[in-house]
Structures are given as structure tokens and as C-alpha cells.
């Protein structure tokens, strides 16, 4: 049994273009393991839609392992105890995994590493898989991590990117006798999301798993990427990749994604198309910028980066917060976006910026409350991206332009000019004139008849109040 290697999957739920798994596959007997971690699943910010998508990815991954002659084993326990117990029971010679940027992941991984070493099991975990460049590859001239995106992008985009790595193949799994040993050591059948206490009764916005993610990438890079720069800001148009959940769980490899953008550039026949493809490449760099930031500045996970916002006196009015959560603010673009997320588990990126700006600048509510609510609802909820987006919108993060205040009406007029998106998600406004739908200045009698609320705050007044508080904070 001593020739067995275990590969611990976490945010890499695939067998293709997986750097750690490719390294493990140099051994012939390779078995996958996924641990349902109570430290994550029992938190109060876990979205049922996200768990449902993850379980779908694990079902697909089990199928992929079967196809190449091996297995994906499932544990449901603290990985610090469960993984070493399983590895020792199966007499595994090594455990491989990919490194992660998040504070909890790093703390957990160090504890698992120590526990495995105590049992004399080799640990090989220093593969970076979810990013194109490791955090120690991209530094400023003075050898510091970047805190501003534009110079990060210049450095990051100038470096050559790795090619996708080989798909797992030609391996063997464990025998029937070893499977019995594994069960005694805690291996269980893959539960459903409902078994774990998470109920999502609607369809998933995107099918889970490696094959589905590849199909979505192919579809996006065939057409939508060529018009991405123009169309990405219009929530009524299907102009974005919708690959964020697949990237969060690693149902697709980032090198595969990058290679697809290079192929699209090679097939491009116009400067406009080139510009669109590069705009999407830049979004991939933003994703990586936020991951590097989380790695270098783990305190971002719990609070503001900028001093002026570390003790900002937010009002945190509970009634206003509830109205925002439910999509009942009386601001149509805000309400449409919140209802889209509540009903589908996903929200268009332009709308994420609008609602986050509204919560922090109009309602004067702590962005951490909004960030947590997003995490409780989003299929693609990712600590680094969610935190980075919220801190950008709240002006509390790494940003050379400290205060951006969005006017919800002008955002709607610019990015939903026909009111299609608003009418889709706020059906009570379907019969209202477009001008009123966009501005939100719906006559009071009509509002009452439609059952649509009055605006919960006055944007102009709130904007002035926010600026006054911010000016005071800067003085201190």
C-alpha cells in the first residue's frame, strides 16, 4: 500500500490543468480527497446556492476520477484530524495539495502539514494553482506588495504566463479492501447540499463541474468576449463570462482561461476586438490583485485598509439595512440588483458596485454588513474578490481615488437605458414609463397602486452627510 499518493482538493475541483494534481500524478496510484470542513460550513455566511454548486462540482469530479481509473474520497470532519487519519490508515506515502491565499486556509494547511509530518507522511503543498503569478512574483521596485492596481497590472501583464498543465490520466485507485479501510477512517458517500442543511430549490445560474465550465469558457470566448468592453456594464445583456463561480471553486484552471484569451487575440480581426479581450484580461488581473492583497494584508478580511475608514462612524440603521437586503429601497436599480441576487444567487458586476456604493454612501452602513450579506447569497462568493469589491465601493480599500459616490438614477440611465433589467427583477414597475423607472421619481399615487415603496433616503442629502463625516475623519 506504500505507493499511494493522496491529492487533497479544495479550490481546484477538476483533473485538468491542476498544477498540484499534475505533480502528484508522477506517482501511479493517485486518489483524490475532499474534506467537507465544519469550520467553513458551520459559519453564518455560507450561501445555500454556493454549497449546491460545490456539491455539483464534486459529483462531476467523482465522475472524472472514475473515468481515469481512480476515486475521489469524501470526508466530513476537521481536516486537521481527518486527513492525517485517512492518510495513515491507507499507509499513503505523500499528500499533495495546492496553496491558498486566505488567512484561514493558510492556518489550517500549516496545522495539517504538522499533523502529517508527525505521522511520517510526506507533504507536498507548495503548488500555486488558482493564480497566474504567485504573491512573491509581483512586487514594486522597492520590493513591496502593490497597493494600487494600475502599476500592479503593468507589472503583472508584462510577465509571461504558464501554459495549462496535463490532465490526470493513466492512474490507479485503491482496492476494495482499501476502500473498507478508508470507510473505517471516516470516508463517506458524497452528501447532498440538503443533507448538509443547505436548501436551494431554484435552478443554478450555471451548471456545475469541469465540463460545464469549459463549455462556458468556449461559448464566451467565441463571441461575447469580442464585445466585452462595450457590453460588460449593461446588466440586461448577457455580456459577461459568468465564470466567477467556476474560478472560485477551481472547476476550470486559470491557465486554461488565460490560454483561451490568447487564442481569442490571435483570432481577432480588429482593434476593437483586441481592446475588448484585453479588458477581460484586465478583469482576471483584478481578481489576482485582490488575491495578492489578501495574502499580503490578511487584516483586510476583517476591516478597512485606509485609516480614515478604520473607525468610521457608520449609522447602521437596521430598518434601512433590511430594506436594502430585500430590494425595497425605492431606488429601482438598487432593488433590481438585490432581488436578482436573492432570487438567482448571482448579481451583475456593475450592479454590485451600485448597491455597495448605495449601502455605504447613501445609507451610511458599514460595508462589512453588506459584504457578509453578499457572502450569504452569492454562488461565486469568494473572500478576496468580495472583500476587494466592497472595499473599492466603500472607498475603504486600496484605491487612489478615495471617494466615489454613485447616483443610482444616473447609473440606471447610463447602464439600463430602456429599463429592461429593472423591469425584469422589479415586476411591479413593468407598466411604468421608462423615465420614471430609471429616475425612481415615480408619482406617489402610482407607487401606492403598484405597491412600490417611497425612496427610503434622499440621495442628495445623504451624499452631503457622508462627505461631511468623511472630512471629519480625515482631520483626525
Automatic annotation (TrEMBL):
Domain called Photolyase/cryptochrome alpha/beta: residue spans: 3-131
Cofactors, names only: FAD
Pfam families assigned: DNA_photolyase, FAD_binding_7
InterPro entries (alphabetical): Crypto/Photolyase_FAD-like_sf, Crypto/Photolyase_N_sf, Cryptochr/Photolyase_FAD-bd, Cryptochrome/DNA_photolyase_1, DNA_photolyase_1_CS_C, DNA_photolyase_N, Rossmann-like_a/b/a_fold
Highest taxon in the source lineage: Bacteria
Keyword Flavoprotein: yes
Keywords, alphabetical: Chromophore, FAD, Flavoprotein
Record-stated family: Belongs to the DNA photolyase family.
Name used for this protein in its record: Deoxyribodipyrimidine photo-lyase
Organism: Gloeocapsopsis crepidinum LEGE 06123
Lineage: Bacteria, Bacillati, Cyanobacteriota, Cyanophyceae, Oscillatoriophycideae
Amino acid at each position: 500500500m506504500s505507493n499511494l499518493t493522496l491529492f487533497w482538493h479544495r479550490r481546484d475541483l477538476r483533473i485538468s490543468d491542476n498544477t498540484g494534481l499534475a505533480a502528484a500524478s508522477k506517482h501511479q496510484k493517485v486518489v483524490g480527497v475532499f474534506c467537507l470542513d465544519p469550520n467553513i460550513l458551520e459559519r453564518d455566511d455560507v450561501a445555500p446556492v454556493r454549497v449546491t454548486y460545490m456539491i455539483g462540482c464534486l459529483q462531476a469530479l467523482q465522475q472524472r476520477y472514475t473515468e481515469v481509473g481512480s476515486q475521489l474520497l469524501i470526508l466530513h470532519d476537521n481536516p486537521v484530524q481527518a486527513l492525517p487519519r485517512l492518510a495513515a490508515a491507507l499507509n499513503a506515502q505523500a499528500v499533495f495539495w495546492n496553496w491558498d491565499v486566505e488567512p484561514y486556509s493558510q492556518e489550517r494547511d500549516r496545522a495539517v502539514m504538522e499533523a502529517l509530518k508527525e505521522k511520517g507522511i510526506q507533504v507536498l503543498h507548495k503548488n500555486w494553482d488558482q493564480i497566474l503569478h504567485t504573491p512573491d512574483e509581483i512586487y514594486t521596485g522597492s520590493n513591496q506588495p502593490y497597493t494600487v492596481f494600475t502599476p500592479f497590472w503593468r507589472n503583472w501583464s508584462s510577465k509571461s504566463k504558464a501554459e495549462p498543465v496535463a490532465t490526470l490520466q493513466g492512474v490507479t485507485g485503491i482496492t476494495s479492501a482499501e476502500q473498507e479501510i478508508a470507510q473505517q477512517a471516516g470516508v463517506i458517500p458524497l452528501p447532498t447540499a440538503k443533507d448538509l442543511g443547505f436548501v436551494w430549490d431554484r435552478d443554478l445560474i450555471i451548471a456545475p463541474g469541469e465540463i460545464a465550465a469549459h463549455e462556458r469558457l468556449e461559448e464566451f470566448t467565441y463571441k461575447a468576449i469580442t464585445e466585452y468592453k462595450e457590453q460588460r456594464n449593461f446588466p440586461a445583456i448577457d455580456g459577461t463570462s459568468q465564470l466567477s463561480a467556476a474560478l472560485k471553486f477551481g472547476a476550470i484552471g486559470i491557465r486554461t482561461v488565460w490560454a483561451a484569451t490568447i487564442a481569442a487575440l490571435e483570432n481577432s480581426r480588429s482593434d476593437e476586438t483586441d481592446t475588448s479581450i484585453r479588458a477581460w484580461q484586465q478583469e482576471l488581473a483584478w481578481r489576482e490583485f485582490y488575491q495578492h492583497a489578501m495574502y499580503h494584508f490578511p487584516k483586510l478580511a476583517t476591516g478597512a485598509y485606509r485609516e480614515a475608514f478604520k473607525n468610521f462612524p457608520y449609522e447602521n440603521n437596521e430598518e434601512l439595512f433590511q430594506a436594502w437586503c430585500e430590494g425595497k429601497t425605492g431606488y429601482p436599480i438598487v432593488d433590481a440588483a438585490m432581488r436578482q441576487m436573492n432570487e438567482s444567487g448571482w448579481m451583475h458586476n456593475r450592479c454590485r458596485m451600485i448597491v455597495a456604493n448605495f449601502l455605504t454612501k447613501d445609507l451610511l452602513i458599514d460595508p462589512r454588513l453588506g459584504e457578509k450579506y453578499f457572502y450569504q447569497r452569492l454562488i461565486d462568493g469568494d473572500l478576496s474578490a468580495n472583500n476587494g469589491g466592497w472595499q473599492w465601493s466603500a472607498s475603504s480599500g486600496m484605491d487612489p481615488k478615495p471617494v466615489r459616490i454613485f447616483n443610482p438614477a444616473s447609473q440606471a440611465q447610463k447602464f439600463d437605458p430602456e429599463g429592461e433589467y429593472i423591469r425584469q427583477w422589479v415586476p411591479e414597475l413593468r407598466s411604468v414609463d421608462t423615465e420614471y423607472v430609471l429616475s425612481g421619481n415615480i408619482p406617489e399615487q402610482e407607487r401606492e397602486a403598484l405597491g412600490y415603496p417611497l425612496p427610503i433616503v434622499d440621495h442628495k442629502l445623504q451624499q452631503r452627510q457622508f462627505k461631511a463625516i468623511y472630512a471629519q475623519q480625515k482631520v483626525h
